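Team,

Forwarding the record for the chain on the shared tracking sheet. I've put the sequence and predicted structure together so nobody has to dig through attachments.
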Amino acid sequence: MYYQERVNNSEEVQLLIALKSGDRSAFEKIYRGYSPRIFLNILKMVKSAEDAQEILQDVFVKVWEKRELIDPEQSFKSYLFQISRFTVYNFIRKINLDKKL
């Protein structure tokens, strides 16, 4: 798990279990731990800090909304990057559609 403060795998599993049950402090810890790296990844794709920040928020809203589906035994980092990638694609698709209109 990528954190400013290092968290081992068992701590990550405990955070994800807490997140699944709706624990907001677990969500905040996960957000603080992953958001810098996810933000930089999004920024590379959209080239706008403002858009990247908006997409980052959308990614974590989706995580919160779908928290019951999280499998603590699977790679959460991969899950987050996949959500962010699809969110960026949808963002770009919407921009292109708006340009056509």
